[in-house]
Every structure is written in structure tokens, then in C-alpha cells.
Amino acid sequence: MSASSTVTMKEVDLLLVGKTGTGKSSVGNSILKKQAFKTSSSLVSATVGVAFEFSEYKNYSIEVTDTQGYGDTRLTSKEKVEDLCKCITMAMKANDGKGFHAVIVTLRFGNRLTDEERDAITAIKRIFPGVMSTHGILLMTGGDMFEMERKKSGVVFQNWVHQQGKDFKDLLEEFGGRIVLFDNNTENEAEKNAQIDRLLEMIDSLPSFGERYTNILFQAAAAELLKSKDESQDFIIDRTTLRSTSVLMDKFEDCRRIDEQEDGADRKVLLEEWNRLLWRCDQLIEQIENRGEREMTGVEYRVVAMRKTIQEYIDAKKNHKEEEAKYRAMVAAQQRLYQEYVRSKILTVGLIVGGTVLGVGALAATIALIVLYPSSLTILLRVARALLPLLRHSIPYVLTPLASVFIQLYRTMRQGQDKK
Ligand SMILES: Nc1nc2c(ncn2[C@@H]2O[C@H](COP(=O)(O)OP(=O)(O)OP(=O)(O)O)[C@@H](O)[C@H]2O)c(=O)[nH]1
Ligand SMILES: [Mg+2]
Prior knowledge:
It is a single chain. By secondary structure, this protein is of the alpha/beta class. It has 3 domains: 3-226, P-loop containing nucleotide triphosphate hydrolases (Rossmann fold, 3-Layer(aba) Sandwich); 232-327; 337-419, no CATH class. It contains 13 helices and 6 strands. It has helices at 24-32, 77-94, 115-127, 131-135, 143-153, 157-162, 166-174, 189-204, 216-226, 229-260, 267-290, 298-372, 376-419; strands spanning 10-18, 50-57, 60-67, 102-108, 136-141, 179-181. A hairpin with a 2-residue loop joins strand 2 (50-57) and strand 3. The chain is elongated, with a radius of gyration of 41 Å. The two termini are 46 Å apart. Magnesium ion binds next to helix 1. The chain crosses the membrane at residues 346-373, 393-410. It holds the Pfam family AIG1.
């Protein structure tokens, strides 16, 4: 187990509410850094009911609950408020009645604060008494549009906020002055992270000091949920598994993506990451198995399947390592042979050149001697005649080792050429 797997993750459960089309689902996707929720530019609410998803970001374990937008154009005014109440009750149930660390109300830059928006906020305040001051955050989407405006006017966001009318300022006051700008369309990774960081920083400094917002309504919803024990138990366990599975699957996809970018990936780090994932899968499977007799759900089967795939990846990596070691050894052997071949070639050339120089030198010296001292010819012939028997006897002793040296050299050269 590596050090990073022991880091305590800070849970942050967020509820997204607001008027239809203000960008709740897009904000959810930006916070989770994945396409978790369906978004649409249609006037009819794209999100129906509630949906939730999870992610891990830095040391935060984030859960986002996205809700159907307030102000669905298909509903009457009364129906809209009732609809929102129903939707938030569903969100509370989906959250196991634990409550939320922050309630994020979305507004859209460029949209006027309409009666519908005010209605929605009044309805939210009724459902969560006092929630805005302790847990509420206003989030303005359309950061890209604001940026275009800023380029023209030169007014930065905080100043723009102060320039707004009384209605807006009153609303902002209810949120303790907390407002954050989000550009859900940005492709800039640093900006994507910076806006999440700004939001998390704001959540960390809420006057609730990290306490979840739970009121009687939440508890009532939880009590209702827990009425039928078996059913609720299944729901709660599945949800916990779901949370971990969702995060693990994201990490699995990340690893797979990095793995495919063969060149950029640090093999050792990647193998560690795969092992860490395997460890987390094992933990999750242990949890599933420990809760006793109950058939596995589809999600749990996915965890088991994911574990198998991760193990296969790790095995493939290890095999790859062994193959790599074998290949390196083979390359080293070839290099050694090639060096021997080069050395033998140098030796051969040296011997031929040396022999030739010596031979030519000796011949030139003899000729010079005979020319300068003709009488030396007789002496030289005598010496040659005396040495002849000796030379005749020594030929096998000289030629045999010389021949074997040349044969050996020839063999080495052939081997070197074959290996090349
Ligand atoms: N330019 C721009 N468009 C955005 C931004 N955020 C969201 N949108 C667009 O606004 C439209 C509505 O976004 P959604 O996220 O579906 O809004 P929603 O509040 O979830 O809508 P409902 O589920 O219908 O209530 C989509 O076309 C988004 O692409 C943003 O920051 N900038
Ligand atoms: Mg939506």
C-alpha cells in the first residue's frame, strides 16, 4: 500500500438548484470533471428528477446532486413550486438524509433576475430555512460571456457584482456575499481547476464549518427511507458501493488513457497506480462480501470485472518487464560480439600491415647491404644455408600456431558479421 492511498479524503456533498437552463448540469460536470449529467440548451428541463455522481479531486471526495430545473416551461407557477419541493425531497432521499455541505444556486450571466428566479429562491428558502446564510453559494455560469464583457468594459467580476441593482445585492446578501463565476465551456485545464479550487475554498470557509445542512425535513426523509429496513439497507449499501465504484472507474479510465500514451507514461509510476487501484478494488470487494447473504447487484459485478481487468493489466506489465529484460540481455550480448569482431579486425589489419612493413624493411636492408658491401652476399648465403635446416624444422612450429590464430580470427569475423 502506498502513502497516497492512506490520505484522508474530505467528503463534500453538493446540491445544485436553480432555474431551468442556468447550467446546473454543466456546473456539475465541470466540478466532477466528467460528463456525468445530461445538458441541453432546450427550454424544457433537460434534467428530470435528480441525478447524482461522484469524483475525487485533490483530497476531496465530491458528490454532486443535480436537480431538475425550476421553471419548467410546461408547468404552471404553482406546479413549479410544488415540483421544486418534490425534487428537493427526492434529492434529500437520494442523499440518504445525510444532508449537504453546500447548496449551490445557479444564475446565468446575462439573464435578468426574473420573478421566476426569485420564486425559485423563495421556494428553496422555504424548504431549507436559513440555508442560504449558512450553506448557500451563488454560482454564476457563463464565465466565458463575462470574459467577453470584461474585455470590452475592463470591469472585473467582483466590481461588476457591486455595480448591480438592489434586487441582486439583496439576494447576494442572503448568501453572505458568496458568489463564484464559472465558465463551463473553457478548455483551459488550469482555469478548469482554478474555478473548482475557488468553489471548494468558498465551501471550506462557509460559516457552517463543514457541517452538513440537515433539518427536520431531511431527517423526516431519512426516517421514511429507513422505514422498510431491508429495502433501505440495500439502498444505502448500494449507494456507498456506487460512490466508490464511480470514483474507481474514473481512475481506471485515467490509467488506461495514460497507458495508451506509451511515450509520455512513466512505467514505474503507472504500475504503482494500477496496484493502488487493485488494492482499492480488493477493499471494495471485501466490503461487499462482508455484508453477508445478498445477491450482488449489477454495480458490484462491475467492480469484480474491473478488478479482473486491472489484474490483467498488471500481469501484462510484469510480462512486459521480463521480456524487456530478455531483450536487453540479448542486445548486450550482440554488442559484446560486435566489439570482439571490431577488435579482431583491427588485430588482423595490424598484423598484415606490421608483417608487410617488417618484410619490406628486411628485404630493403638486405639489398642495401649487398649493394654497399658486395662481399656480404657470400656471408648472407652461408648464413641462409646454415639456417635452412633450422627453418625447415621450425616451419610446423611457427606456421601451425599462426594458422590457428588466423583461423580463429576468421571465425570471429564471420560470427560478428552473422550477428550484425
Ligand atoms: N456559454 C456558456 N454556456 C453554458 C455555460 N454553462 C452552461 N451553458 C449552456 O447552457 C445550456 C443549459 O445548460 P444545462 O447545464 O443543461 O442547464 P441546466 O440548468 O442543467 O438545465 P435543466 O436541467 O434543463 O434545468 C447548455 O446549452 C449549456 O451548454 C457557460 O458557462 N457558458
Ligand atoms: Mg440539468
